[in-house]
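Folding Query — how this chain folds
Tokens — whole-number codes for backbone shape
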Amino acid sequence: MLSKEAEPSFRFRVNKRACTPQDLIMLVPWCLSNVLSGTPVIFRPVMDLALYYSEYRNYWWQHVRNTEDSVEIEEPAGVAPYPNARDNISDRPVSDKGSNFGRIARIGLLDEYKREMDNMSLLGIGASEWRRFFKEHD
């Protein structure tokens, strides 16, 4: 919850053919009970369909984001559900200077959830205010 980037940095690059309709993606925000120390405390997770996120991530990369770079995405061959541990199942963009492909927090699907987490009170202070404090005193 208190990462400097103010958004989940999780990257989801799984190709849509590796996802079944039942597969889920889940993000679990957490922080320490006393913000700076204590035991981990988790907050309401967000859970949704992995297939939807995989498809929308590629759509957003190719049709929504504003760029002059290539929007082509290389999809691995032979991908199917329930891959082996060493199988390549990750989509890869042809051009990704900032290594941001797959950052699902940036494609709009989590905007409302992120606002809710930003307003979450931690020891009487909003999470976004804690982040601002940590950035200023880095």
Residues 50-64 form the longest helix (15 residues).
